[in-house]
Amino acid sequence: MSAPKVVVVHERFTEVGGSENVVEQLSIEWPTAEVHVPIARSQGIPRGLSMPPYTGRLNRLYRWLGQGSYAPLLPLLPMSFRHLRLPAADVVLISHHAFATQAVFATDARAIAYVHSPARWAWDPQLRAGEAGGRLGGLALAALAVRTRREELAAAPRLARIVANSSAVAERIQRCWGREAQVVHPPVDTEYYTPDRSVEREDFFLLAGRMVPYKRPDLAVRAAREADVPLVVVGEGRFLQHCKKLAGPRTTFLGRVPDAELRDLHRRSRALLMPGVEDFGIVPVEAMACGSPVIALNEGGAVDSVVPGVTGEMVVPGTDEVVIEGFVDALRSFRPGACDPAAVRKHAELFSRAAFRANMRRVVNEVAGQPV
User: Fold this and answer.
1) Pair (165, 243) in one structural domain
2) What is the pTM (predicted TM-score) of this model?
3) Is 207 helix (H, G, I), strand (E, B) or coil?
4) SS3 of residue 109 by DSSP
5) Contact by Cβ (8 Å): 120, 141
6) Domain check: are 20 and 146 in the same one?
7) Beta partners for 188?
């Protein structure tokens, strides 16, 4: 029996992040699969794609706009997905976090949605606050949110299978779409992020990632100040200056650093801090792949990736003050060697790129009626 013919659809290639890494691994698993996106620019295309992506008609307008912000194109994206010219296939794999499930209307093939999340800004009004300029911008975004929720709900029943990137996202899919989803965790580069036995752990904790409000770096910075422990902060973003004002004298801000330097910090830090709620959270698994424990909020993707007492510690969710108090206690009581680096590393390997590809191959074969 021949392997199923697969086509991949993705939201957009405007910058390379976690969802683009997912598509890259899908392309590696199915190297003959065409990858279709409405808009793309060269710096947003992952290097590992087996062939250049196919873009929709909307990409001409994106180029005319200078390939900068895609925000003006948001109202046009759902229809662009519906009019993608997809080839005949056994399975269409859709990488979704806003509009991509609309591609289910562009094919007669069985469609699988790998969902990074239902469009969070459409379902959560708090995430829309402050994102649009002025009252008119806010009204426009609210109207688009209503339309996006309606379109996601229209597409959901037509999907042959829904795959979530974490248990937290699976619960959100059930709540928003009324559909069950199986969980396949996203790929983490455990081949690059590795331990180094020649490097000794040093006396500092690490906070890494974009400095944006929803990741709550302010909570980790305040906790480190109150616990009077050294903290190294890696990352940039609009919340950075606010965090600097909250920091104590033992907190150091490095800004954005090369991957090699981040890996070195993971290898040397006592533990990584994860104070925010992530859909999954790639950085904590990268830390664990280096043998570094993680101190995380017991919510969101961390519930799937962090094993208390084995790969790190969990902090009970609550108000800001409750969370800060929990991190302060964890920072003060955390001892070097509390977690076996070998066990931490072994756990991280469950989230490897190879594991992701194998899990997705099983899903596709099941949907296509092929041997698993």
Assistant:
1) no
2) 0.93
3) strand
4) coil
5) no
6) yes
7) 352
Average pLDDT (32-51) is 95
Q: 170 in a domain, yes or no?
A: yes
Distances (CA, A) of 217 to 26, 160, 213: 32, 38, 7
DSSP letter (8 states) at residue 164: E
Closest Cα partner for 361 from 105, 3, 19? 3
Q: How far apart are CA 164 and CA 279, in angstroms?
A: 10
Domains identified in the chain, total number:
2
pLDDT by residue (tens digit) across 102-125?
999 999 999 999 999 999 889 988
Return the DSSP state at 3: P
Cite the DSSP H helix spans in 30-119.
58-64, 77-82
Q: What pLDDT shows up at residue 133?
A: 58
Is residue 310 located within the same domain as residue 330?
yes
Q: What is the DSSP string of 283-335?
A: HHHHHHHTT--EEEESSTTHHHH--BTTTEEEE---SHHHHHHHHHHHHHH--
* Paired residues of 273 in beta bridges: 295
Task: Please report, as a single letter, which amino acid is at residue 359.
Answer: N
Amino acid present at 27: S
Q: Which residues contact 219 (CB under 8 A, 6 or more apart)?
A: 275, 276, 320, 323, 324, 327
